[in-house]
Amino acid sequence: MYNVINENDLAVLRSVVGDVNVLYGEEISPDYSHDELGGISRMPDVLVRVHSTEEISAIMKHAYERTIPVTVRGSGTGLVGSAVAVEGGIMLETTQMNKILELDEDNLTVTVQPGVLLMELSAFAEEHDFLYPPDPGEKSATIGGNISTNAGGMRAVKYGVTRDYVRALTVVMPNGDIMQLGSKVVKNSSGYSLKDLVIGSEGTLAIITEAVLKLMPLPKFSVSLLVPFPDMKSAIESVPKIIRSKVIPTAIEYMSRDTILFSESYLGKKFPDSKNDAYILLTFDGNTDHQVQTDMQTVADLCLEIGALDAYIVDTDERKKSVWSARSAFLEAIKASTTEMDECDVVVPRSNVDEFIKYTHQIAEETGVRIPSFGHAGDGNLHVYICRDALDDKKWEEVLAHCFDLMYKKAEELGGLVSGEHGIGYAKKSYMRKQYGEEQIMLMQGIKAAFDPKNILNPGKVCY
Amino acid sequence: MNILVCIKQVPGSSNVEVDPVTGVLKRDGVASKMNPYDLYGLEVAMSLTEKYGGTVETITMGPPQAKAIIDESICMGAKCGTVLSDRKFAGADVLATAYTISQGIRKCGEYDLIICGKQTTDGDTAQVGAEVSEYLGIPCVANVLSVDDVADGKIYVTVSLDNIVVKESVKLPCLISVDSDINSPRLPSYKVKKTLTDDMVKFISFADFEDQDANHYGLNGSATQVERIFPPEKNTEKHSITGDAKEQASGIFDVLKSRKLI
């Protein structure tokens, strides 16, 4: 149903972006055939490096007319195959659209191109005494990618997720039309929020070419606590109690000793403490030292009362770096510890985190597969990794499907959802379909058809 | 094995303003912390006593509020510590500081090993450790990467001499200053913080010292005078090189060549 790229298409693309920005066939690096996890793989026919809204618009006009599939890709750090061109066609790479266009201190917004990296945006904000709160572990992801998956990250407990910080988007529609969705306004009751439909749509509805993001004043003080527990059960069970204490930490992460040891070996650097089986890592921030210290002490006392072995204070830049840089490397560290892995990024109500994690331990025991996990205990979003280790192809496929079935079923039972922040992409479609049912999927397909009647934008993803 | 670690309170951030008139760092109202280089020394000390037994104590020179870092060192595992504090110590250069600390150490007791960090983040001279050892009349090894063994009244250390690494043995008592990034310093314990008592920190002033000649301390005892302190010029120059990989590589080459860096 899609047309194959021909010489004329290449000529059009070259005329829009210049010869050097169009790579065809074998000129394209195999890296563009997969994302970070690599389970889903297909080379695009042509890779186009884009630089502006107008270039993207011109390309989409042509692709729409010729019915050629188009997949947008940022840094390629996704985990569910969203940015893999499963139907071939054109891949648009946005990493060269990496300019921070405006800091509006009157409206507390920053306007960026989609290829700006999360680490660049957060550093820019901090330089100007602002905070861009969404804080996913993968700092080299692009903002366009973060918006497309509605990424959450570690500060979601207190500050919410990417969606809460997107004020407006400039998008190119599949037919090449350019649209402004939303604006710098704080309130908006003006019709359906098309902007919010695009956020989290994983590049299936429109192409984000500019984003106006909300900033917060940078909190003046922050301190973290690394709390060791004798076992994972007691560590996880502390989380609902911490939440009930009404102190709102910026982040509550859990980690096991195994994961810490993987990160030590991956980074070649010791974690400040790895003697104990399980840890909770919390951060508190605020505008007065007194408030931050009081919050920290309330939670530290509570943790000691319910069985924590200690509460280590992470108060200086050096200490924060030593702890949080290890935390940010967990995914890569687990990946390096095995031959292949796949992940489950479920989100469950916070009161059920302990039950879900215990269940993954039970599955690991029953199946004999290694299932390390870590994640955002404070917001219920867990990252559970199924490691292949020495399993052969057949056994691996069986075990993976079995583990996923059990985990997604359990998450549903507990009132959870398939993905907390990594998205559905290609890899998790069947699990979402199973949970939501045909009616909701058809509603989603209707939305997709309204945006993209020829189904050329990132086909085969999310609800198809 | 009884170990003493020398520590210092420094500004919590590198963005400390300098008073343009007096040239003195404006420390008031600026959060402070333990000199990050000293944390590596503390970690070496704690690991040695875990392995060979004994205790760790800490010592610092500074205003009374420097007690905070002695408390912190106790939270990290030290048994107790001492603050050398007196107005007469103010304005000390490297020499006067080293002399004051050596007087303080004599007053505190006898130690098998004294450990210093490589340097401080505010003074950056990396000389105090060596000069303290001189005043105490004990051997000194700088740039220690690891303490490999303690046996027969000696310690065996691995030392960095920039492009070569040397293994040495030194008779105890001695002083070592340890390199940075050689370990992951442990974190202070909140549990211990709750049990801190005032008697864990001792204050020693000029009146307690053996040498009562005030001319040996502070500004009077300093062989060097600071002429001017000024912040380094901030360079925010940014140069973007765009184009394909070849053009970017050639752009980088041109910049490096024009600045005679290659």
Name its key features.
heterodimer, A: 464 residues, alpha+beta, 7-stranded antiparallel β-sheet, globular, B: 262 residues, alpha/beta, Rossmann fold, two-stranded antiparallel ribbon
Question: Can you offer a commentary on this structure?
Answer:
The complex is a heterodimer of chains A (464) and B (262). By secondary structure, chain A is of the alpha+beta class. Chain A contains 14 helices and 18 strands. In chain A, a hairpin with a 4-residue loop joins strand 5 and strand 6. The two termini of chain A are 15 Å apart. The mean pLDDT of chain A is 94. In chain B, helix 3 crosses helix 4. Chain B is α/β, with parallel strands linked by helices and 262 residues long. Chain B contains 6 helices and 11 strands. Chain B has one domain: 3-Layer(aba) Sandwich (Rossmann fold), CATH 3.40.50. In chain B, 36% of the residues are buried.
Short overview:
The complex is a heterodimer of chains A (464) and B (262). With 464 residues, chain A is α+β, with helices and mostly antiparallel strands. Chain A is built from 14 helices and 18 strands.
Task: Note the topology.
The complex is a heterodimer of chains A (464) and B (262).
Chain A: H1 7-17, E1 22-24, E2 46-49, H2 53-66, E3 70-73, E4 90-93, E5 100-104, E6 109-112, H3 118-127, E7 130-131, H4 143-149, H5 156-159, E8 166-172, E9 178-182, H6 194-198, E10 207-214, E11 216-217, E12 221-229, H7 232-244, E13 251-256, H8 257-267, E14 278-286, H9 289-305, E15 312-314, H10 317-328, H11 330-336, E16 341-344, H12 353-367, E17 373-376, E18 381-387, H13 393-413, H14 429-451
Helix pairs in contact in A: 1-2, 7-12, 8-11, 12-13
Chain B: E1 3-6, E2 9-11, E3 32-34, H1 36-52, E4 56-61, H2 67-75, E5 80-84, H3 94-108, E6 113-117, H4 128-136, E7 140-151, E8 154-161, E9 164-171, E10 174-178, H5 190-193, E11 201-204, H6 245-258
Parallel strand pairs in B: 1-4, 1-6, 4-5, 5-11, 6-10, 7-10
Antiparallel strand pairs in B: 2-3, 7-8, 8-9
